[in-house]
Design goal:
The protein is mainly alpha-helical. The chain is elongated, with a radius of gyration of 23 Å. The protein is built from 4 helices and no strands. The termini are far apart.
Length: about 80
């Protein structure tokens, strides 16, 4: 877990603290859960760099020439 410094105005902080008391959770836990729900709702997509990083080397165990594989796939388009 990584720490972050976030500023809230007094009104926001009072609402966060009230929700924390009501649900018997810490302020940090409330903020994490609200942010998690918001990010799921917004459906934040990974960046191109993240996708490349996550998928790099996926086929390294296969003995396939990439260009030949691409030609084979494209040949299917003409069928």
């Amino acid at each position: 877990m990584v720490r972050a410094v976030i500023s809230f105005d007094d009104k926001e902080l009072k609402r966060i603290d009230a929700l924390a008391r009501k649900t018997k959770r810490s302020r940090a836990q409330v903020i994490r859960e609200v942010m998690s729900q918001h990010l799921k709702k917004e459906d934040v997509q990974p960046t191109w760099k993240e996708l490349v990083s996550q998928t790099a080397g996926m086929w390294k165990h296969k003995n396939i020439d990439g260009v030949e594989y691409q030609r084979k796939l494209r040949a299917e388009w003409d069928r």
